[in-house]
Write a structure and sequence with these properties.
Elements: H1 56-67, E1 71-72, H2 73-76, H3 82-87, E2 95-100, H4 127-138, E3 142-147, H5 158-171, E4 176-180, H6 188-195, E5 201-203, H7 213-216, H8 223-236, E6 241-248, H9 254-266, E7 271-276, H10 293-305, E8 310-313, H11 326-340
Parallel strand pairs: 2-3, 3-4, 4-5, 5-6, 6-7, 7-8
Antiparallel strand pairs: 1-2
Helix pairs in contact: 4-5, 5-6, 6-8
Length: 342
């Protein structure tokens, strides 16, 4: 799954049962493992509670998604910020995150609530057009397009992604588009296709520190592979804004997080989001720690001090959290102005 919005997951499948009868309480009959289960000594704090989403724009977007059979990672992962983002938050910049290429992932990361299968349904050929039409009608200023991983497709779905971006820009040229992508199995040609489709921000999540990669992510993902994707996106198009996200509370140390942040700055990543990992079910990764808001504030200050142009850091921050807030929009507009004056 491309997005770490699933840090805030609710009940969700980890693996599809493929129609077989299974024993046990979870899809596929999978039991608890070495890194799963709930830790009774780690209690969820009050600062993680959120009000139920509501509001006029929220209801409009929700209804449109249902009519056009479109998926959002906001809903699939039960993100706690869905109402704030869809309604526009404090700055009035409404953001939605659409999940392309279906709702079933070919990978099984231990943190993620999105359902998985080795053989998901083929992509809907009308999805790029339907998605673009829906978004153009919503009145949102900034859209995040993400997707499940599609290792079953030759290009990993990059062409489908690019077609959606191109169609949306034709219908609404002023909208700003962020693409939160998979690693395309490390295929840099697939990265090129998307980078040159007209998007404004290229995002890909490394999810966690280097030591925890094999515990947290599907074996087909990897720290160096993710860094390679982000680096290639940055150098492939002048002025490209790059972004990534890291979950906290998985057992990482301060030194390991600093190392990851240094590695990201070494490839000139512009934007970093840091948020608390929340366990969707006992089958998923155990929460090792609930990081205090004060520590998140420290990491924001530290990240901006070492050169990130923007750091969003807080317990409920997700990779797509209020992605269109004013600072990011300003960055995009500055880049466009700079390029047009050359």
């Amino acid at each position: 799954m491309a997005s770490s919005s699933t840090m805030a997951g609710s009940e969700g499948k980890l693996f599809e049962s493929d129609g077989r009868k299974t024993a046990g309480p979870y899809p596929g009959g999978m039991g608890l493992g070495l890194h799963t289960g709930r830790d009774p000594n780690v209690k969820k704090p009050g600062w993680l509670r959120q009000k139920a989403p509501q509001g006029k724009r929220f209801e409009e977007v929700k209804g449109s998604l249902s009519r056009l059979n479109l998926h959002t990672v906001c809903e699939e992962a039960q993100c706690p910020n869905i109402g704030e983002c869809w309604n526009g938050g404090g700055d009035g910049i409404a953001t939605a995150t659409i999940m392309l290429l279906g709702d079933t992932c070919t990978r099984g990361c231990r943190f993620c609530a999105v359902k998985t299968s080795r053989n998901p349904a083929p992509p809907d050929p009308m999805e790029p057009e339907n998605t673009a039409k829906a978004i153009a009608s919503w009145g949102v200023d900034y859209i995040v397009l993400t997707s499940v991983d599609r290792d079953d497709l030759p290009d990993g779905g990059s062409g489908h992604f690019a077609q959606t971006v191109e169609t949306l820009k034709e219908l609404k040229p002023e909208i700003m588009i962020e693409c939160l992508t998979s690693d395309f199995r490390g295929d840099l040609k697939a990265v090129d296709v998307l980078v040159h489709s007209g998007l404004d921000v290229f995002a890909h999540n490394i999810e966690t520190v280097k030591r925890l990669q094999r515990i947290v992510r599907d074996p087909r993902a990897g720290y160096e592979q993710s860094l390679s994707v982000l680096k290639h996106a940055k150098i492939s198009k002048e002025g490209m804004i790059t972004k990534t996200s890291i979950m906290l509370g998985l057992g990482e140390t301060d030194d390991e997080l600093k190392e990851a942040m240094d590695d990201l700055r070494a490839i000139d990543v512009d934007i970093l989001t840091l948020g608390q990992y929340l366990q969707p079910t006992p089958l998923h990764l155990t929460v090792k720690e609930y990081v205090a808001p004060e520590k998140f504030a420290f990491w924001k200050e530290y990240g901006e001090a070492i050169g990130f142009r923007y750091v969003a850091s807080g317990p409920l921050v997700r990779s797509s959290y209020r992605a269109g807030e004013l600072f990011v929009q300003t960055m995009v507009k500055e880049r466009s102005k700079s390029l047009s004056s050359q």
